[in-house]
Amino acid sequence: MNWLRRWNARSLASQFFIAGGLVSIAAMFLVGLLVTHLIEEAVIHNSGAATALYVDSVVAPLLPDMQTESLLDEGSAQALDETLGQGALGRRLVSFRLWRNDGTILYSKDKELVGQKFPLNAKLQKAFAGSLVARYEIADDPESGAERALGKPLMEIYNPVLQPWSGQAVAVLEFYETAEGLGDSLAHARLQSWGAVAALTGIFFLVLSALVFRGSRTIEAQRRDLKERVKELSELLAENRGLQRRLQRASQRVAALNETYLRSIGADLHDGPAQHIAYASLRLDSDLLINASTEPEAREKELAWIRSSLAEAMTEIRNICSGLVLPQIEKSSITEIVLRVVEAHRHKTETVVETIIDEDGPELAAAVKICIYRFVQEALNNAYRHGGGVQQTVKAVSHNGHVCVAVSDRGDGFDPTEVRPTSLGLVGLRERIDSLGGSFDIETGEGGTTVTMTFEPMEAGD
């Protein structure tokens, strides 16, 4: 069935052009045959009718009463011989016969046929029924040997002789006419009829083809658009699935990181404030404070140690809290967020940070603002701790809903492969950005380090 697959692979217009062309050719051939046949019949019949009328007007007055006479008398036969053998009628007629309804030839130019009886053929039967019969063909009847010997088509006419008062056909006049020029007329009529049928069929087919090709182009364009949309939807579906898997992985990593954050905070509290408070608690139970005989100076010195330990514990607790609690940034712009983080970093580290901010985008979601705050905060801390705070720069750009924030320094750089998966700084930033559908990138080397985050933010309120 390879031909069927190849056929189905063609366009609708191509299928119509091939199938419609074949059907149109077949229809043109059939209609042409029918029209040509009808035209030939009409031409032959009209030509025969004209000749029959002329012959009938000349010959009929010479015939006796065929209702009462069974044989043609000698006078009538002689009159027919003289009439049919001379003048224009004699030149046109090849032969002439007078038939009786029983198949007997009452008169003929070929005297050998007179009195002979032949079976009535279909043409004679139709003529005796009262109809004029005209044919343009080579004679093939048994009695037409002389006409057949000519080897060319003749105008063969059977004209009924009607009784005047009853209208009954009492005899039939059969005559053959040379019909010069009729063959050319028929050929010309055939050519014109075939040309007209071909022209009409061609115009009809071309008009339909134009409509079909136009519709096919529209269908093909719609099909291509549909395929493109299906392709785009498939790509979006695949992308959504990828984002869903990415979000699931990010959520799992964020959960693990939260546990790590909690352990880190617990370790910071245990190693810092808890140690100072434990030290102060132990000094409260010292003999210098319990014993009433302790000198005031020694007691005051011990209390100073306790107050110092508690003060250091409070300072460390405040530092931990300041890193955990965010300021009110939900209604702040990117410019305000970046400047607030940079100012806090300058105050804490006493280093210089260059800021470049270009903002003309729409209002960002709160989650995105928090992400920007944490990103700049953590990146500056890493630049200070690992790069020495050399030529720190923060560049933030927001255009048409796309946000790009980059923090760079000119320190010695580091090897990204040495960053542990359990590291809270960079890993935490990456997971936070991934969870929002953004991208995180690090470029580091001897010339310094640049950390970049880019993403298309969600609408505010999402």
TrEMBL record:
<dbReference type="GO" id="GO:0000155">
    <property type="term" value="F:phosphorelay sensor kinase activity"/>
</dbReference>
<keyword id="KW-0812">Transmembrane</keyword>
<keyword id="KW-0902">Two-component regulatory system</keyword>
<feature type="transmembrane region" description="Helical">
    <location>
        <begin position="12"/>
        <end position="35"/>
    </location>
</feature>
<dbReference type="InterPro" id="IPR050482">
    <property type="entry name" value="Sensor_HK_TwoCompSys"/>
</dbReference>
<dbReference type="GO" id="GO:0046983">
    <property type="term" value="F:protein dimerization activity"/>
</dbReference>
<dbReference type="GO" id="GO:0016020">
    <property type="term" value="C:membrane"/>
</dbReference>
<feature type="domain" description="Histidine kinase/HSP90-like ATPase">
    <location>
        <begin position="367"/>
        <end position="459"/>
    </location>
</feature>
<keyword id="KW-0472">Membrane</keyword>
<keyword id="KW-0808">Transferase</keyword>
<keyword id="KW-0418">Kinase</keyword>
<keyword id="KW-1133">Transmembrane helix</keyword>
<feature type="transmembrane region" description="Helical">
    <location>
        <begin position="194"/>
        <end position="213"/>
    </location>
</feature>
<protein>
    <submittedName>
        <fullName>Probable two-component sensor histidine kinase protein</fullName>
    </submittedName>
</protein>
<keyword id="KW-0175">Coiled coil</keyword>
<feature type="coiled-coil region">
    <location>
        <begin position="216"/>
        <end position="260"/>
    </location>
</feature>
<dbReference type="Pfam" id="PF02518">
    <property type="entry name" value="HATPase_c"/>
</dbReference>
<dbReference type="InterPro" id="IPR036890">
    <property type="entry name" value="HATPase_C_sf"/>
</dbReference>
<dbReference type="InterPro" id="IPR011712">
    <property type="entry name" value="Sig_transdc_His_kin_sub3_dim/P"/>
</dbReference>
<dbReference type="Pfam" id="PF07730">
    <property type="entry name" value="HisKA_3"/>
</dbReference>
<dbReference type="InterPro" id="IPR003594">
    <property type="entry name" value="HATPase_dom"/>
</dbReference>
